[in-house]
Amino acid sequence: MEETMNSYLSFAENDYQFFRHAYDSGNKGTALAALGQNICERYLKHIISTYARPENAREAHDKENILRTHSLNKLMNYISEKMGIDIPEDTELRMDVIDGYYFTTRYPGSESFIPSDREINKANRAVDAARDFTLQVCRELDQEQDFNENHDEYSDFGFEDDEREWLNKKKRAWLALFFVFNEFSQSAHTAENLFLPESPYFHGND
Question: Residue 132 pLDDT more than 90?
């Protein structure tokens, strides 16, 4: 049975596997330059398609339009400015370098060129950066969504704006603690061992 391809991420990951195999095998064909940008584009579009939440018709129109572009810079601007997601500077620079490869390495024109190994290496670095960034954003936003769904204890109450803002701050504080807990849960048993009677750090009822 064929695997269902129902998201930008599915297509990005499928092409990423091909790109990774070709590049790592030393087969740095010129098509990898354009493919590299296209993979980055799909990773970024997955973030927008999945997590952007328009609140009115204008924002819905903006989201629809941005998903039609091939410009990595426009996609990154939407993610950072419209969605408030911080893009690491190194990740942004790597994708900025290859923005335009989709056209300049595929079609004739005044800015067209045949990509060399150097350009393909740049595409490779951009692809890895885009993939790492996208998967990290997905993990964080999925965790936040799960947390909000399981801890929306105030949803059935009516509050004034000031009270609601205070509660939102409280929820964000709990969310931060939730992430810290997840980060250090692997070592939680170490702390517990300090209080066992056989631990050299246990002082009983001193």
Answer: yes
